[in-house]
Design brief:
273 residues, eight-stranded mixed β-sheet, alpha+beta, 8 helices
């Protein structure tokens, strides 16, 4: 088993570069990591970089939309929340969103590596008992993130951290075109339902008529889950989270709402760097 792990580790290094957090890293670099509290508090994020396959589900009807429910363990979720809280972005109680561009915090860089590994060691499977997320068939493009995106450097260079309280969500939208293909969303704390709706090209269509024939795909996001959007899911579908009473329904029941934290990772297009 150890031999297999070593082969996988080398495959990751060849594809995405050697991790600065390997056991063989220089002592000075290790000390620098330890001196950064936000980085050390998130050290658990790399404890499971052993090539274990994550189970992925592809969205039925939304090409390029993938969900990994077991992306972060309970300990990893706690570690990530601690790292976010250490930043102090939300201490004043007046802000619920923070953005960073370029050089990301150490914990966000580690999180990006974990996303990369989760895709590289992917295991595709249908979701039992659900109609919204099902892998009906798997073709050559059955990959949670296209390889050309997976191999870019860096994988992500922009992050958004959001804190939502009960009743708060995000309106239906497509991410700005200043961002490249391939978007990752990590969910923490309270579970929720994210809805995907196909974009309408007719801007002058009557709103009531548009709502009648609209196709809405619900996706259940549990704490510790990872959503990846690329291709059609990124450009041709809007996504939203409506946490008002009556909208957070899953399997016929209203979800109990608590605080929800999310981290979105994106890559700026070259023209905007």
């Amino acid at each position: 088993m150890e031999g297999d792990d070593e082969i996988r580790r080398r495959a990751l290094e060849e594809a995405f570069g050697e991790s600065s957090d390997d056991d063989g890293a220089g002592g000075g670099e290790e000390e620098e990591e330890e001196s950064d509290p936000s980085s050390s508090s998130c050290s658990l994020l790399l404890e499971e970089r052993d090539g274990r396959p994550r189970k992925w589900e592809m969205a039925n009807g939304v090409k390029g939309l993938w969900l990994c429910r077991d992306f972060l363990s309970v300990d990893q979720q706690s570690s990530l929340l601690s790292a976010i809280q250490h930043e102090g972005w939300f201490d004043d109680g007046c802000h619920n969103q923070a953005m960073r561009f370029g050089d990301l915090p150490g914990w966000a860089t580690k999180l990006s590596r974990l996303v990369c590994e989760a895709v590289w060691f992917s295991e595709v499977s249908p979701a039992a008992g659900t109609e919204s997320i099902v892998g009906d068939h798997c073709g050559e493009d059955c990959w949670p993130l296209p390889l050309d995106l997976l191999q870019r450097e860096p994988l992500f260079d922009q992050l958004i951290a959001n804190v939502y309280y009960p009743g708060e969500g995000i309106c239906a939208h497509v991410d700005l075109m200043r961002f490249d293909d391939g978007i990752a969303i990590i969910s923490l704390e309270s579970a929720c339902v994210m809805h995907f709706t196909q974009c309408k090209q007719e801007d002058n269509i009557d709103k009531s008529q548009a709502e009648e024939g609209i196709k809405r795909i619900p996706v259940f996001l549990n704490a510790g889950s990872l959503v990846l959007m690329s291709g059609e899911a990124r450009y041709l579908w809007k996504h939203e989270i409506n946490r008002k009473q009556g909208f957070q329904l899953w399997e016929g029941r209203e979800l109990a709402q608590q605080r929800r934290t999310s981290v979105t990772l994106r890559k700026l297009c070259k023209s905007h760097n």
